Amino acid sequence: MCPGSFDPVTNGHLDIVGRASRLFDEVIIGVLINQAKTGLFTEDERIEMLREVTKGYDNVRVLAFRGLLVDFCRANDAAVVVKGLRAVSDFDYELQMAQMNIGLAGVETLFMPTNPLYSFLSSSLVKEVAKWGGDVSAHVPDMVAARLAERLAT
């Protein structure tokens, strides 16, 4: 299970998904639907973009979920959550989540260090740069860059 909001999906996300797809028979990308937050892209748009950019992986599925990640893992027979870590600050937060997940449902967490090319990259940063007209094409798939430009055009 590779969970996240993916608003939008970045090349860093895809690096983790691609690496996980080589380690596991099946990888589920779990798109978190948080109704308390308004994303730049709707849940359907995020799912559509993820399906498009991962169509080259035969063992990757994209599904939406609400609520607890461990419940979603159980419902989909996913025993491992794969999380990319960019920095020590990510580890502090993710370790607490991993410990809670194993305590709640026995779901393991695999921490995967981010490729150094993507160590600074986040969806929030991509959106901020794109909002101000910056070129994010090196950080997201081409179709995502086009969708960002279209959505943020003023």
Automatic annotation (TrEMBL):
> Which source organism does the UniProt entry give?
Phytohabitans flavus
Task: State which gene encodes it.
Answer: coaD
Q: Give the EC number.
A: 2.7.7.3
Please list the residues that bind ATP. Answer: S5, F6, H13, G84, L85, R86, E94, Y118, S119, F120, L121, S122, S123, S124
Residue limits of the Cytidyltransferase-like domain?
1-128
Q: Which NCBIfam families match?
A: coaD_prev_kdtB, cyt_tran_rel
Tell me what this protein is called: Phosphopantetheine adenylyltransferase
Where is this chain primarily localised? cytoplasm
Broad enzyme group: transferase
